[in-house]
Amino acid sequence: MTDPWVALEPGADPSERVRVLRRAHETFTTAGTVPRPVRSVVADSWRRSARAGVGPDGSANVELTDGALGAYRAEHPLARVMPLFRELMGTFAADGEHLLAVCDAHGRLLWVEGHPATRHRADRMNFVPGALWAESAVGTNAPGTAVAIGRPVQVFAAEHFIRRVQPWTCAAAPVHDPRTGRVLGAVDITGGDGLAHPHSLGFVQAVARAAESQLALLSPPRPAGEAAGLAALGRDEARLLLDGRRITLSRRHSELLVLLARHPEGLTGDELLCALYEDESVTPVTLRAELARLRRLLGPGLLASRPYRLTAPVESDVAVVERRLAAGAVTAAVAAYTGPLLPGSQAPAVVRLRRRLADGLRAALIARRDPDLLADWAHASWGEDDLEVWRALTVVRPTAMVRARLEELESELTAPRAPAAAPTGRATWLQRPRP
Q: Which positions fall inside the OmpR/PhoB-type domain (predicted)?
């Protein structure tokens, strides 16, 4: 196959490919190996699905219904481009007996529209608005896999991980926020084998790009005094969105802005020294030089002194997670949490904030006992060694894979450890941030 992203190359026999894929799927679900000719994107997705504890005979769960679904859709950014989706894809879906579907960034279906008979068939596998079609919940499928890998994907017949979905073929492309670059969700076309054609993949990709352009036009310029945006979760170098500019900050400037955004009342030079530096020999001159460089980077007027403070509000992703968590919106808080705060930072105040935020989320997840949320955390890079989350996941989703991983972690915990090396110079007690 010349293009690994295309499900069926021109001239291939769909029926024969389906038979080959079903045998490969059976081999994987029984022996754990992926034979040819399964595409690498599908093989990787099957492995992720298995690690998440998805079973081949599973089904999707409906999470939102009635008023809750309506309220969620009304507030979602993709609601503004649904007229565009319908204009570009509605006739194609209806005439071809396909479905137009739109999901959020977690693979939760928001809209499913199209040919009535096809919708009725799709209802039987819960391919309906409000259902969770994340890859971690129902395995390989175009909308769920597209948001998982962040690029357009086509899934043909028995490439689907769950057997009841294997009569279908779909193609989906992620839609990004034009201002921040974050995935908002995906647009999908679902139907029969004819959608395995390369054109369907290009079609949904073009529709997604059109939606991003439309969102950019619908997003008004930031008025003077509106909060700038600071993204510091899951990255060592924070990104600041300021007056239409995207500024990637150095590690030290990232730490400074995180702390100043958190303290709008301002911090003195001594307070910043204690917050940033473990080494007490660092002088105030070093700090003032960093602040001067940051002031030049931000432009005039945003960074004041005596005390050091930001003169305009800066909305950080840390504050978003904290606000949602405080309101009890655990799912929304987890959605906004893209990883530990500045994970490479050893600044004392950042370390404390990183731990407090992660520990608060972990406690809420364990108390919530939602298997999908726990699985998402456990399979993230920051949660793969999180013993307490794996224990909680084993209670609510006791698959063989989950139990095996818990046993592995518990054996590592009880294994004898080599003596620690003597400390050398600057403290290194936080080489790896806690999840």
A: 244-310
Q: How many domains does the chain have?
A: 3
Quick one: 186 and 272 in the same domain? no
Q: How many CB atoms lie within 10 A of CB 248?
A: 11
Q: Phi and psi at residue 276, in whole multiples of 5°?
A: -100, -35
153-156 and 169-176 as β-strands: parallel, antiparallel, unpaired?
A: antiparallel
- In sequence order, the 6+-apart residues with CB closer than 8 A to the CB of 43 are 34
- Whether the pLDDT of residue 244 is over 80: the answer is no
Residues 308 and 403 in one domain: no
Residue 65 sits in the same domain as residue 189: yes
Amino acid at 187: V
Q: How far is Cα 92 from Cα 90, in angstroms, rounded to an integer?
A: 5
97 & 127 share domain: yes
The residue among 200, 218, 236 that closes a domain is 218
Q: How confident is the model at residue 170 (pLDDT cuts 50, 70, 90)?
A: very high
CA 82 to CA 86: how far, in whole Å? 6
In 3D space, the residue among 22, 73, 50, 64 whose CA is nearest the CA of residue 138 turns out to be: 50
Contact 169, 192 (CB under 8 A): yes
Instruction: Give the range among 78-82, 226-230, 241-245, 384-388 with minimum mean pLDDT.
Output: 226-230
Residues 6 or more apart from 122 whose CB is under 8 A from it? 99, 112, 128, 168, 190
Question: Does residue 339 belong to any structural domain of this protein?
Answer: yes
Radius of gyration of the chain (CA): 24
SS3 of residue 372 by DSSP: helix
- Residue entry with tokens 């919940």: 137
Contact 351, 345 (CB under 8 A): yes
Averaged pLDDT of the chain: 87
Report field, pTM of the whole predicted structure over 0.85: no
Strands 314-316, 228-231: pairing is: parallel
Range of the domain at 381: 317-413
